[in-house]
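Annex B. Sample input.
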Amino acid sequence: MHTATELSRKVRVPAYHSPGPTAEPPPAYLSVPVTVARKAVSLYHEEGASAARRYLRQSKVGQWANHTNPSMATSNSNVLSGFDAYIAADTADGRPARAWGLSTVLAWPAGPLRVRLDVVLAEGDKVAARVLLWDGPDLHEAQAPLIAAPYAAALAQLHPEASLASTEVWQARRQTYIEVSIQEALREIRAAQRLQFSL
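Annex B, continued. Sample output.
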């Protein structure tokens, strides 16, 4: 099953193709930082910044930030600084988190697409989605509506009773943040569905 994360990578790196079902799992230096960072975000919203930072410092990401390999050290240091930037931006934003780490599957023409919403925010009587990408490729403003499309569809599927506000796309390692209105994101659904065929 393809994921919205894979689709987001395809938008930013057009030559990308998702691994087939028989492919070897990704190496730990690629998968572990994403898993750890996602858990840190959930911990932050559950227990606060101190608990999340403590977990992150004691994790593999914290250890690898001091790696003798400069590339490993830089990559994981960027996760740490990106997480600090996320806390600062979330605090300044002020909207309460309503839920986090939610997953659903969209029944799209190219096949099921698994979508994970990192955070759902309450915005008055509306809800907004926040998506954090912890991989390497840059995020540009023109790419954000297409990336946001499956996340907006997932928000609508998970909260059919709610009015929807926006989908925020973050490239957390690079501290890039783009907010996409729900209308703009949903206009890109068909383009995202077509793109899924080429994953």
